[in-house]
Amino acid sequence: MIITNKHNLPQTFVNVANRPSYTKGKAHVSATELLNSPRIVQLKKKYDEQITVDVSDMIWSIIGTAIHGVLEQGKDENHIVEQRLHAELDGWHISGAIDLQIVHASGVEINDYKNVGVWSVMNEKIEWEQQLNIYAWLVEHVKKTPVTNLAIIAIVRDWNSRDAETRQGYPQSQVVTIPVNLWSMEERETFIRNRIHVQSEGLFAMDTGEVLPLCSATEMWEKPTQYAVKKEGGVRAKSLHADKEEAEEALLKAGKGYILETREGDRTRCSRFCPVSKFCDQYSAYLEEKQNGS
Ligand code: SF4
Q1: Residue 16 in contact with residue 58, Cβ under 8 Å?
Q2: What is the 3-state secondary structure (H, E, C) of 34-48?
């Protein structure tokens, strides 16, 4: 990966970004890779030396690492911090680095630190549940010790006290413990097997030159185009529609003084966050279609 410094940040930041990242060792996949889109996983591997990331876009990841480092110092005698476990399933080596394991007489509690925006805390993130259950599988499989609880410790970077008082469902403090559903060992293993299957298909397609599995709408963080019926000069929509014809009917019913506004959809991950978008034919085909207005 090539790290650029377009905004001329101090060299310290570039040095930190260039630090050797931890290694998965002999593992084929890490827990987070197992959950990722197989297209992203394969393209990242193929174009690793050409992927360009600006250091300014790595700030939250650098701060996240710093937070982990500081919290490590709060370790107790019954805490195991930043332990990477490895296990094998269906011929695949799987590894996961677990932020914190709290060892009780009855078993192990697993915590994972996340440095996130408030949106992530207020909306369900199924991938957190999946990631922690892979860790739970690793702990029980490797250590033969039962896992009793899972939790995300979310540090909410854009939290503010005014919203905490006025907005429903808003986190009540800057750091929130979110309990996570613990699946049975059988469910965990079935889930991991399914993900291995998904990743194997990506690997096979890359090796044989076939088309890589396509990213799903969820994986692309797709927001569909919407049609808003609103008052001329107004901001808020009277009604929102996924279907253009339905929106046109609603416009007729709304009567004089109303207009139809097209709110263009987007594949947010592709356009702003995916490190391999430059190398992805699924995304270039989408852009071409958009340009041609189809
Ligand atoms: S650019 Fe979009 S479609 Fe392509 S790999 Fe990235 S997320 Fe998937």
Answers
A1: no
A2: HHCCHHHHHHHHHCC
Q: Are strands 175-180 and 52-54 parallel, antiparallel or unpaired?
A: unpaired
Secondary structure element (H or E) that encloses residue 249, with its range: helix 244-254
- Which residue has its alpha carbon closest to ligand 1 atom 2? 270
Amino acid making up residue 144: K
Give the list of residues 6+ apart from residue 21 with CB closer than 8 angstroms, or none: none
Our answer on whether the CB atom of 37 is closer than 6 Å to any ligand 1 atom is: yes
| Residue whose CB lies within 8 A of the most ligand 1 atoms, among 212, 219, 223, 290, for a mutation test | 219
CB of 85 closer than 6 angstroms to any ligand 1 atom: no
How sure is the predictor about 294, in pLDDT bands with cuts at 50, 70 and 90?
A: low
pTM: 0.88
Predicted confidence (pLDDT) per residue in 30-81, tens digit: 999 999 999 999 999 999 999 999 999 999 989 988 998 899 899 999 999 9
> Could you give all domains of the chain from N- to C-terminal order, each with its CATH number?
2-208 (3.90.320.10), 222-291 (no CATH)
Tokens of 292: 């041609």
Phi, psi at 20, each rounded to 5°: -60, 130
pLDDT band at 27 (very low <50, low <70, confident <90, very high): very low
Write the residue with the smallest CA distance to atom 8 of ligand 1: 215
DSSP code at position 195: H
Q: Which two tokens stand for residue 27?
A: 């593992």
